[in-house]
Input
Amino acid sequence: MLRAFPGTTDNSLTQASWIDIVDPTPTEIAAFEKAFSLRVPVKEEVSEIETTSRLQVERGALYMTAPLILATGDEPWIAAPTGFVLSKTVFLTVRFVQSAIFDSVSKELNVGSPTLVYVCVLEGLVDHMADLLEASSQALDDASHVIFRRDNLRRLSRETSLLRQLLVRTGRTSERMARINYSLVCLDRMAKFTIERGREWVEHEQISRLQSVSADIASLEQYAEGLVNRIQLLQDAATGIINVAQNEVMKILTVASVAGIPPVLIAGIYGMNFKNMPELNWVWGYPFALVLIVLTTLLPLIWFKWKDWI
Output
């Protein structure tokens, strides 16, 4: 799908300052290349990971690519390779997934130069990344509230399953932080590449805005780094609490096994029924055995309690 801003027809694409192509067809690629004599990046090209492949200059136009997180709401955070071509006459965006971000920029944007549109798109993408970081921060706040609440240690058996779920969620958040951070790095490289290679023809005002975009990205990278540290802290805390819960279970089993050995031994001895066992003829032999079993059960428990092991 090809869209031109301001609105025009395929026969007069040269009037547009921004061409946005989603999953381009051969016809759309041919129409753009005929109108502007510029090459349209293909999907394999925008998916390259080398810096030299992501940032190039051809025929005076800047060719840039970046893996962007275009998800909104509960959509999967999958990196979508996106291509950008900026020249003196046109700004081209090539993507292969639908995105509400580009739609939002196109609605808010007035007619302007290609570099103005390019800067506005970068600013919109950076704002979107900031929103994703804020959402991740809120998710970590919720996880922190669950992990560090005061009654956790008194309800370990109930909380262990929830903590395991939180470990999965924080692990997913950590993966998302890595993707966001890489997207921010690529956007920062694009902004600096444009300032460096387009300084002769990019408006001074847009260069200043690009420098502001780069500064915003640097602050977001620091914020993302702080979130990564929080994720590590929460994962360590959740793992520690789960280990405490498991240790409590092992302690209970150990105490039960130790306290159960003496009465089982006594019951085993008096259950052998040998002929010459004087206790078998005692009138109070059975109550004596029961009392002995109870005492040998309670004494280890009292000992553990006195030592504050239980």
Notes: The first helix runs from residue 26 to 36. The chain has eight helices and six strands. The beta strands are 2-5, 18-22, 55-58, 61-69, 79-86, 91-95.
